[in-house]
Amino acid sequence: MPFEIVKSDTHIDFIGKRRIAAMLSGGLLIASLIAIPIRGVNLGVDFAGGTEIQLQFAPGTGADEGRIRDLVGAMGVAAASVVRYGEDDSGAFLIKFQGNINDVTNTEGDVGQLSDAEVAGNDRIVRLQKALADAIGPVEIERVDFVGPRVGQGLRRDGLMSLVLASFFIVLYIWFRFSLRFSPGAIVAVLHDLCITAGIFVILGLEFDLRILAAMLAILGYSLNDTIIIYDRIRENMTARTTVDFPDVLNQSVNQTLSRTVLTSGTTLVALLALFFLGGEMIRPFAFAMIIGVFVGTYSSVYIAAPLLLLLEQRYGGAPTKPTRA
User: Fold this and answer.
1) pLDDT tens readout for residues 20-65
2) Can you list the alpha helix ranges (DSSP code H) found in the chain?
3) How many CB atoms lie within 10 A of CB 282?
4) 3-class secondary structure, 52
5) 77, 99 in Cβ contact below 8 A?
6) pTM of the predicted model, to two decimals?
7) What 3 state SS string does 163-232 have?
8) How far apart are CA 37 and CA 202, in angstroms?
9) Using an 8 Å Cβ cutoff, are 246 and 310 in contact?
């Protein structure tokens, strides 16, 4: 007898709660839109342009993010982000801030890494290293990278284009595998997941950078996979039980795939939680975005993709409109 997390005879009226789910999603989307002018979109160095400085303190110096941030701020670098990576006692930190610390290269489109000679000859970097060494302890400047504003603008444009192209090919894939009537539900569910995830980042004031873009693309694929599993079962049940009201077919299909959905989402969350708590500051934003995406992607496959398919079938496909009963 196969192991089942959710019993095969489970009958949860998911479709009957579709209006409540629609109000919940609408509320989150409206809150996200309101947060944009109030909180603003916190773009990272990758998208806004700026400088990254990698520091390596000697063992036992007791360096921490707060002390480094205060010293960097005292030197006139506003809103600097300081993250620790590696083990807690590794002494490795990354400073990120908007603006160019390189006094030699001022071209807007520049992107690259300063050489050792340029680092040693840059007065601002030398003063920063001396201030950190005097206040905390011996420190080495391992790396200085900079991204110009035009490069950041290009990365933003390319990132958005990658999401648009991925969504376009999703429509083609769903159309080819199922029918064109299935495509809107899948694409709306994917856009819903991306907007909700981005909205939560805006509301919380978290930074958008290339790690979050990578998470968005991963969320897109994860959400689509879950939606396709449910759609595939819906198609099978539509063929096998053509006389049953369509809302009942949708409920049956979602319930039949519920065990697989719970198992897949649960195991994915275990891995993501491990990355979030144990992976360090460098991977934590990616893991956090993915955790949101797993919850929202699972939710949208049930409460966005399936109900939208019901709406389209009732209006254009001749599906029965009799409401389902729990």
Assistant:
1) 999 999 999 999 999 999 988 988 888 887 888 889 998 888 888 8
2) 18-39, 45-48, 65-74, 116-121, 123-135, 149-177, 183-204, 210-240, 246-256, 258-278, 284-300, 306-312
3) 14
4) strand
5) yes
6) 0.82
7) HHHHHHHHHHHHHHHCCHHHHHHHHHHHHHHHHHHHHHHHHHCCCECHHHHHHHHHHHHHHHHHHHHHHH
8) 10
9) yes
